[in-house]
């Protein structure tokens, strides 16, 4: 019996878990950037979000 189906299943589960954790991180940073009271913290959170999304941070 081939081990290929097992390896593909494991790779799929790993890719799904990685995507889910990245999405949860993006959601947390986005919520923090909106809900923070301090302007400096909002600015830092928005810069972090821009880095995670691969965009240039706005000045």
General description of the model:
This protein is mainly alpha-helical and 59 residues long. It has one domain (4-53). The protein is built from 2 helices and no strands. It is elongated, with a radius of gyration of 17 Å. The model has no long low-confidence stretch (mean pLDDT 85).
Protein topology:
Blueprint: H1 4-35, H2 39-53
Summarize this structure as a short list of keywords or feature phrases.
about 60 residues, mainly alpha, 2 helices, about 0% strand
- Determine the N-to-C terminus distance: 58 Å
User: What is the overall silhouette?
Assistant: elongated
Question: What is the succession of H and E elements?
Answer: HH
Multimeric state = single chain
Largest sheet: none
- Rg over C-alpha atoms, rounded to the nearest angstrom: 17 Å
Mean pLDDT: 85
- Unreliable runs, pLDDT <50, ≥5 residues? none
Keywords: Membrane, Transmembrane, Transmembrane helix
Summarize the structure.
This protein has 2 helices and no strands. With 59 residues, the chain is mainly α.
């Amino acid at each position: 019996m081939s081990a290929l189906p097992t390896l593909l299943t494991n790779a799929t589960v790993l890719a799904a878990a990685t995507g889910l954790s990245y999405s949860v991180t993006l959601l947390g940073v986005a919520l923090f950037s909106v809900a923070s009271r301090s302007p400096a913290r909002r600015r830092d959170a928005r810069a972090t979000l821009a880095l995670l999304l691969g965009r240039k941070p706005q000045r």
